[in-house]
Amino acid sequence: MSDVQDAAPSSGAEDAVDLILEQWARERPDLDCSPMGIIGRITQLQREVFLAQRATFARYGLDAPSFDVLAALRRAGQPYQLTPTALMRTALVTSGAITQRLDRLEEKGLITRERSEADGRAVVVTLTAAGRAALDAALPDHLETGRALLGGLAESDRELLAGLLRRLLVARGRVPQKP
Question: Where is the HTH marR-type domain (predicted)?
Fold first, then answer.
């Protein structure tokens, strides 16, 4: 049995990546193109996730970067504050990118930036009541979007996939950073 046949689900359904793998197997049988089976599907799913989330967030006047910042602040618990550096680590972006995100959110009244009472040199970012309301309104819809995207998988398959992706990310060094 070929790698391509192994990759197809037992239902016999094939996707566009299966066709690409068949074509490469024919044209370059000397190469193991199996990584394309995973990376190609991740790339296609990444696009699907991006489009679905963009539509979801737009309904609430947000985008994915804004949602990420608001969610990080909400997850921090009361008083819903983090430093820009902590937000930068959470979002895995540069200081310039986090500054742009914070500028946009502050203009919308969803966050505030103030000097820390504990350390006057430090800045703290605080989720406003409007920011919390926006995040809390969008979150259930965001979760439903995720459920819909995963709708083709049984719960056991979702757990298996989550575990495999976690293992791959950890192997790539994507582990939480210390505060």
Answer: 35-170
Q: What is the DSSP string of 82-150?
A: E-HHHHHHHHT--HHHHHHHHHHHHHTTSEEEEE-SS-TTSEEEEE-HHHHHHHHHHHHHHHHHHHHHT
Q: pLDDT for 20-34, tens place per residue? A: 999 999 999 999 999
Whose tokens are 């391509």? That residue is 4
Q: Is residue 9 over pLDDT 70?
A: no
Q: H or E stretch including 59?
A: none
Structural domains of the chain ordered from first start:
35-151 (1.10.10.10)
